[in-house]
Amino acid sequence: MSILVVGSVALDSIETPFGKKNEILGGSATFFSISASFFDKVNIIATVGEDFPKKHLKMLRNRNIGTDGIAVKSGKTFRWEGRYEYDMNVAHTLATHLNVFQDFSPDIPQNLRNSPILFLANIDPDLQDKVLSQMNNPKLIACDSMNHWITGKKGSLEKFLHKVDIFLLNDAEARQFSGEANLLMAAKAIVAKGPRSVIIKKGEHGVMYYSKREHFIAPAYPLETVFDPTGAGDTFAGGVIGYLSKAGKINDATIRKSMVYGSIMASFAVEDFSVNRLLDIKMPDIDKRYSDFKKLTRF
Ligand code: AMP
């Protein structure tokens, strides 16, 4: 199958206890697409400014990621500045400069409207709905969101979620969205609101999948070095959706495996700044962590 991802392509400035980097490649669609590209064909829909370094587009194309849907607009690229403390589960946003991303409202090119799998990263839920309305019946619709939309556009998000197969969000967002402190109760409450299933990401504590039929948990891949958690969630989503696309069928077994691949991809992303580590690895590195994962969780 093939995947269409709609989200941000950004320049990030990041500070962690281990260092500081300015204007490095980031954005939800970037992390997602590089991660998913290990498994299947991905096309990106995003917008960047004229200042966006061409080398990044070239790198994506060299990985067989479709970039025709990245519109280069006059103005500056979206920039995000973030800081993490020793507890790297919490990102502090220092600044968000939307720039050309402010007017992001894509017309999906005709040849991409038949993409069987659609991943809508954390954009305005009204925009997520607008994108979906242009598609020709995708087989799998997954989306992410964030605290900003949960607070500011809860009604739109709730309406949109009825159309979604897999809704991904982190633990703090799940508690905020559901009003439930307990994560299992939160997952149940979220599924009762409309999406067919929910994946709650708990950072270094792993992930939980919940649907009316199935409940599955996976730990995070244990790492000694976590350098920069930026993009872990989107990289996780890229592994999940990429694997499901490659598997060609969505059932309990493939969903379980996809969560493990998502966790493995995220474990690589956090080992270096930006997408650096993801650009370093090959499929045997992923396979090695997959078999480690099996050994670590067998009992
Ligand atoms: P994650 O750590 O997976 O939640 O995603 C981090 C990425 O999201 C960074 O590379 C940012 O460029 C991007 N990002 C941060 N804030 C926003 C926003 N408001 N809209 C879209 N993308 C964002």
CATH superfamily: Ribokinase
The CATH topology is: UDP-N-acetylmuramoyl-L-alanine:D-glutamate ligase
CATH class: Alpha Beta
Low-confidence stretches: none
Q: Which cofactor or ligand species appear?
A: adenosine monophosphate
DSSP summary: helix tally: 11
> What's the rounded overall pLDDT mean?
96
Largest sheet: number of strands, sense, barrel closure: 9 strands, mixed
Number of domains: 1
Helix content: 25-40%
Radius of gyration: 18 Å
Q: What is the end-to-end distance?
A: 34 Å
Number of strands: 13
Q: Name the overall outline.
A: globular
Spatial order of strands in the largest sheet:
5-4-1-8-9-10-11-12-13
Q: What is the H-and-E element order?
A: EEEHEHEEEEHEHHEHHEEEHHHH
Overall structural class, as computed from helix and strand content, comes to alpha/beta
Keyword list:
nine-stranded mixed β-sheet; alpha/beta; 11 helices; UDP-N-acetylmuramoyl-L-alanine:D-glutamate ligase; four-stranded mixed β-sheet; 299 residues; single chain; 13 strands
Description:
The chain has 299 residues and is α/β, with parallel strands linked by helices. It has one domain: Ribokinase (UDP-N-acetylmuramoyl-L-alanine:D-glutamate ligase), CATH 3.40.1190. Helix content is 38%, strand content 25%. A 9-stranded mixed beta sheet has the order 5-4-1-8-9-10-11-12-13, with helices on both faces. The relative contact order is 0.15. The mean pLDDT is 96. Adenosine monophosphate binds next to strand 2 and helix 8.
